[in-house]
Design goal:
By secondary structure, the chain is an alpha+beta fold. It folds into two domains: 36 residues; 148 residues, Rieske [2Fe-2S] iron-sulphur domain (Rieske Iron-sulfur Protein, 3-layer Sandwich), CATH 2.102.10. The chain is built from three helices and nine strands. It has a three-stranded antiparallel beta sheet, with no helix packed on it.
């Protein structure tokens, strides 16, 4: 009789050990499998970001983050676009000849769609975040201010195409990230337009 009991005990212990061991393997595997997934940081460093631009009002600004950096999307009115050439003689790089934007944004608006400006708002002087000041003649800046971006750190100024003015510390226009439109409503930051064949990459000043 005791032999039967010992056999039963032995069988029970064997089964229990196998079950506990299996649970342990599964529990250990969960963090291992999870560790194979890209981290949030890795995704933010390389993954594209989609922005709904359908609800941006004229003069409005939408903020997002891509590669751990801010991205701003500004809706520009037709009057603003028409006034951009008036700034050219006061700008350091009016033709956007410095590589602060992908080739498909080297135009008078520095954008794919004229009305939508897409920029990385990091001042090219010492990396401060400029203020969005679209109203002409802003009394906190100057009576001749045409509207644009003003850096509060050292006074650098950019127009509403994010082009830097002369006689300010910043040497370059604000950067324009690679981007494309998935539809009339959705803007994707981090991918070139289909068929653009652009190999342009982010400038080192970012």
């Amino acid at each position: 009789m005791s032999e039967e009991i010992d056999q039963s005990k032995r069988h029970f212990l064997t089964v229990a050990t196998v079950v506990v061991g299996s649970v342990g393997v599964v529990m250990a595997a969960v963090p291992f499998v999870s560790s194979m997934e890209p981290s949030a940081r890795a995704k933010s460093l390389g993954g594209p970001v989609d922005i709904d631009v359908s609800k941006i009002e004229s003069g409005g600004l939408v903020k997002a983050k891509w590669r751990l950096k801010p991205v701003w999307v500004v809706q520009r009115a037709p009057a603003v676009l028409a006034g951009l050439p008036k700034n050219d003689s006061f700008l350091r790089d009016p033709g956007s000849d410095q590589t602060q934007q992908p080739p498909y944004c080297k135009n008078a608006w520095r954008s794919i769609k004229p009305e939508l400006l897409v920029i990385v708002p990091i001042c090219t002087h010492l990396g401060c975040i400029p203020l969005y000041r679209p109203e002409p003649g802003d009394p906190n800046i100057s009576a001749s201010w045409p509207g644009g971006f003003f850096c509060p750190c050292h006074g650098s100024k950019y127009d509403l195409a994010a082009r830097v003015f002369q006689n300010v510390p910043a040497p370059l226009n604000l950067p324009v990230p690679v981007h494309r439109y998935l539809s009339d409503k959705v803007l994707r930051i981090g991918e070139n337009p289909v068929g653009s064949h652009s190999s342009w990459t982010s400038p080192e000043v970012w």
